[in-house]
Amino acid sequence: MGILLTSFFAATVLGGLGLEGTMGHQLWVQAVGVVATAAWAGVCTYIILIFVRAVLGLRVSEQEEAEGLDIAHHGERGYHL
Fold it and tell me: Cys-Cys with 26: which of 7, 20, 58, 77 at CB 3.0–4.6 Å?
């Protein structure tokens, strides 16, 4: 949220150093940047998940899940109850 308010804090009317265009235009440019960054991160994460799923898999077997991942994967108990 703070990145979007930069357009208001940079306005010379409010004591800032100035910006290109109006506050509304700068707000729009920054909103597009935020959306583009979120989309880029989502696409990259999806590609990484596809790669990891193909190489390693994303789930454990039902037996390992029932046994407990601390014992199945690490060979030790996480909690001594």
Answer: 7
